[in-house]
């Protein structure tokens, strides 16, 4: 399956019922402005940005891009309260989850990008009106393989021997009301704020998929696709009127080969049936993604810019990285650069090239700083006094681990 995914450039669209106001490009009239082709002389870089950080979709790599962009321009981030790393996921997002909202200590936020369960009306209370909303989807089969390893300890998975055995018995054993089990079922739909309990045999599946797609079309300006990460970055660059340097990155949060499990074609089909809602959402936005490539950038220009991006990334890897690429966590020298390890996954990171000047070091360090450490640092920069309080042993803040926020 994995090799066939690589060659599967475009997935043929499925026929879906779409509400009348959605155009063939998937853009409702009010959002049609991003369809206009940007040129360097006419566009202005956008800095009011909302990114819905979905799970296991390369979202940490995008978070790092946004963190670097914002930090180097002194922009203000809508960060989770009390130095948490997530916006109280998996609860539906509420504006008071953001530090500085209730206290009114922050007047204007520019970028919001930490994990949350999306609620448009609450996000809109925090972010400026002209905010650019975007997110990223991953093929549900590849995503489920990643999730099964990373969230192996959730109740739905922890007693199952393999993903196959989970899929064979899931209809019988899966309990959606048990905490953290949402990771096992239509996680994309869940993150976007929809009811995720649907499979291929659900009676109103098509209707629910169409409603979810229409809502995402209405609320988001751009939906990217992990499988085409570099193309996604070029599309984002055009939509935000950014430069190539702004969208270059190193792959973050990736598992080492030893914790990847190639799937059989039969397993892939079972995943599509189990995650039928996500599968339909993915198919739709895979199609609109390529429409956007055509209308915003053009095929030829896309090819050129993707190769420029890869060249730039290779140059950066050459100057920034000690080992030329990602290494297992046991080999990472600096604890500040070690990514958070979770479940049965081995998450790789990077070592910095020791032979670089101070200025280059700052730039390189930002490129390879994992999510938790970077979020922590931005919080300390934005709220030095509150950060000092969080360090105080009497001000006890529970450590956030993925998906297990506890209000107690
Ligand atoms: N640039 C790029 N291109 C393609 N794929 C990428 C990229 N960056 C990260 N990844 C893969 O994304 C997976 C991690 O996703 P997230 O960072 O969203 O995970 S998390 O929910 O924040 O824990 C993880 O997938 P798996 O390795 O399959 O687990 C990463 O390898």
Automatic annotation (TrEMBL):
Pfam families: Gal-3-0_sulfotr. InterPro entries: Gal-3-0_sulfotransfrase, P-loop_NTPase. GO terms for cellular component: Golgi membrane. It is a single-pass type II membrane protein. GO terms for biological process: glycolipid biosynthetic process. GO terms for molecular function: galactosylceramide sulfotransferase activity. It is found in: Golgi apparatus membrane. Its main location: Golgi. SUPFAM superfamilies: P-loop containing nucleoside triphosphate hydrolases. Keywords: Glycoprotein, Golgi apparatus, Membrane, Signal-anchor, Transferase, Transmembrane, Transmembrane helix. PANTHER family: GALACTOSE-3-O-SULFOTRANSFERASE, GALACTOSE-3-O-SULFOTRANSFERASE 2. Belongs to the galactose-3-O-sulfotransferase family. This is Galactose-3-O-sulfotransferase 2. It comes from Sander lucioperca. The lineage of its organism: Eukaryota, Metazoa, Chordata, Craniata, Vertebrata.
């Amino acid at each position: 399956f994995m090799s066939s995914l690589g060659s599967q450039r475009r997935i043929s669209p499925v026929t879906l019922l779409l509400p009348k106001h959605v155009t063939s490009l998937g853009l409702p009239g009010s959002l049609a402005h991003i369809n206009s082709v940007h040129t360097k002389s006419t566009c202005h870089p956008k800095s009011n940005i909302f990114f819905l950080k979905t799970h296991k979709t390369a979202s940490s790599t995008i978070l790092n891009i946004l963190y670097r962009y914002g930090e180097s321009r002194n922009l203000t981030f809508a960060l989770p309260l009390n130095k948490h790393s997530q916006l109280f996921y998996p609860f539906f997002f509420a504006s008071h989850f953001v530090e500085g909202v209730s206290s009114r200590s922050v007047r204007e936020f520019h970028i919001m990008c930490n994990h949350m369960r999306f609620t448009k009306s609450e996000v809109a209370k925090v972010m400026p009106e002209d905010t650019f909303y975007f997110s990223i989807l991953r093929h549900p089969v590849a995503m489920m393989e990643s999730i099964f390893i990373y969230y192996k300890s959730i109740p739905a998975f922890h007693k199952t021997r393999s993903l196959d055995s989970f899929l064979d018995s899931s209809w019988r054993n899966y309990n959606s009301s048990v905490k953290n089990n949402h990771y096992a079922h239509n996680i994309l739909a869940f993150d976007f704020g929809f009811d995720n309990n649907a499979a291929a045999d659900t009676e109103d599946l098509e209707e629910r998929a169409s409603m979810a797609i229409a809502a995402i079309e209405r609320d988001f300006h751009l939906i990217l696709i992990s499988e085409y990460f570099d193309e996604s970055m070029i599309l984002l660059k055009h939509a935000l009127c950014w430069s190539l340097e702004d969208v270059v990155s190193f792959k973050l949060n990736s598992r080492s080969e030893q914790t990847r499990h190639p799937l059989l074609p039969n397993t892939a089909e079972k995943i599509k049936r189990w995650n039928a809602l996500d599968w339909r959402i993915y198919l739709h936005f895979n199609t609109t993604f390529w429409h956007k490539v055509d209308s915003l950038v053009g095929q030829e220009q896309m090819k050129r810019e993707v190769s420029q991006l890869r060249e730039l990334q290779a140059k950066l890897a050459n100057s920034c990285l000690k080992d030329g690429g990602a290494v297992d966590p046991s080999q990472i020298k600096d604890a500040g650069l070690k990514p958070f390890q979770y479940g049965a996954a081995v998450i790789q990171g990077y070592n910095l090239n020791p032979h670089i000047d101070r200025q280059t070091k700052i730039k390189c360090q930002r490129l390879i700083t994992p999510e938790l450490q970077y979020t922590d640092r931005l919080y300390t920069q934005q709220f030095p006094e509150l950060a000092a309080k969080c360090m105080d042993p009497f001000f006890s803040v529970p450590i956030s681990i993925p998906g297990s926020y506890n209000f107690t």
